[in-house]
Amino acid sequence: MPVDRLAARVGSTPFFAYDRAMLTRRIQLLRDTLPAGVSISYAVKANPMPAVVQHLSGLVDAFDVASGLELRTALDTPMPAARVSFAGPGKTDAELAQAVAAGVTIEMESETEAERVVAAGRRLGIRPRVAVRINPDFTVKGSGMRLGGGPQQFGIDAERVPALLKELVHADVDFLGFHVFAGSQNLRAESICEAQRQTVELMMRLADESPLPVRYLNVGGGFGIPYFPKDEPLDLAAVAANLRALVEGSIRPALPDARVVVELGRFIVGECGVYVTRVVDRKESRGRTYLVVDGGLHHQLAASGNFGQVIRRNYPLAIGNRWAEEARETVTVVGCLCTPLDLLGDNVTLPPAEIGDLVVIFQAGAYGLTASPTAFLGHPAPAEVLV
């Protein structure tokens, strides 16, 4: 749908729009490429919009959630509770009780959390479904964010897991297996492959030592998407071939009935969304042209550079109602907030734009609205639509 028609349909700017057909094609790409029998779990935190989660519930095999609200969003879909996992540090007693009562799999992140899960099950008279999230003894190179290796708030240190498993033997829990998620936003296939190899080796070692049967292996994900001009798309075929070799050569011979899960968020939704904002002012300042828009970092923090915490590069953007026009003007696109950090496009070459034109930021399907400081300066929240 042309962006001007889409804007008219939404009725106001700014807004996020997500493409259901692209989401469907993305899952089909994974089905066609990943090894048969490997389950696809969607990490709801990447984009928890209920309509997106509802659509994906009929396409993926499982959901991973990280809060009570995400849990309720997942449980409001046709996805069976047994195919929902709940990860993340700092789960409250109320969230744990909700998860136990719902029958989802709780990815335990510490020994004390394990004790609280057992206690919640005892209070409710329900046997909790649990897995152990492992903080591995290796790190992943090339990831945008590392969530494993060294000291971490995520997971139980690998060397401490055997002792916990011995304790769980005497607890009334339904132990399923292990979860390792060591890094995110990685475009280097060999780095992901090496992480998979080390993850499976670690899981197989712990499974061999476990006094409890292992039926579930979540090997994480971390598949990245390109955001910037020099980024090369991930070689998904190479990653899939490596995973196939690990499943057939290591996992199936030792654990023939274990469910193997790949957990993905950004890779599924990131390229399926856009953020659309309208030019409300055009100004010149000492030789530089600024397009001031009605959106900004309060909706799309990542595109602005995360409050200056990372080296900022431009996300791909365009003037949505001037697709056919030549890009012949260099401008800086800024948001409406009272901070110089509210920068959406720095010295970008675009077709000449006027007040009322639509700026489209691509790769906006993941970690957009809910990962941004929406209350900053009190501007209205943007709309979200699934089209």
TrEMBL record:
MF GO annotations: diaminopimelate decarboxylase activity
CC cofactor: pyridoxal 5'-phosphate
Domain named Orn/DAP/Arg decarboxylase 2 N-terminal: residues: 22-270
A Pfam family this chain is assigned to: Orn_Arg_deC_N
Active site: C338
Keywords: Pyridoxal phosphate
Modified sites of kind N6-(pyridoxal phosphate)lysine: K45
Keyword check for Lipid metabolism: no
InterPro entries (alphabetical): Ala_racemase/Decarboxylase_C, DCO2ase_PEP1, De-COase2_CS, De-COase2_N, Orn/DAP/Arg_de-COase, Orn_de-COase, PLP-binding_barrel
GO BP annotations listed: lysine biosynthetic process via diaminopimelate; polyamine biosynthetic process
Database matches in NCBIfam families: dCO2ase_PEP1 (TIGR03099)
Protein's recorded name: Pyridoxal-dependent decarboxylase, exosortase A system-associated
Taxonomic placement: Bacteria, Bacillati, Actinomycetota, Actinomycetes, Micromonosporales
